[in-house]
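[[Encoded backbone]]
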Amino acid sequence: MLPLHGKPALEYIIMGITNAGIRNFILVVGYQKEQIINYFENGGKWGINIEYVEQSNLNGTGGALLQCESLISSHFVVTWGDTLLDYRIYTEIVNLFKNEGYDFILTTNFTEDPHLGAAVYTKGEYCTEIIEKPQKGKSESNLNNTGLFILSKQIFEILHILEPSERGEIELPDAIGKGIKDKKWKVRILRMDDTQFRGDIGNKVEYEQLKDDKTWLEFLKFK
């Protein structure tokens, strides 16, 4: 709900996904959840449907997703709530799914060092390994997990048996990596290009820059 040029950041994210044709949303809420629920309500103002689930135990991105299991019946889009993306990428991932039908699609962006996110290793157009929070300067990949996915309901099979990470969290990237290794999942990669915008409002310095600059808003327009 951090404000950016007249809107909470989450509204930009929801509108970008709506632009790709998605109308049914599940928001995982926790601390100060009332701020989100009171603002978005059932989503009718934006022409969408919103359901809410609460993650009372902050046990990671995979833990958050487990709260949604009973509400999900097939493939679904997942994105982080603190990552702003060029609206084009939402449409691209949905179209890739419609045209090629992959059960798992993972979006990546280029970075000098993915130590703050997750390093993604690839072979051709497919992911071979994901390393969450690699040691700074040690990653052999410059691809970072952007935080936008299309997943099959099969992901819950892994999440239920996944051991917590060193941080004590159930990590969604770890679950995808285990599915690749143990179940031979084919995880298609969608690479963001250098012209596409990504902003991390979870990074205080970057958030302040986004507040001071408006040029990035050009990337958050309906196409």
User: Anything to note?
Assistant: The chain has one domain: 3-219.
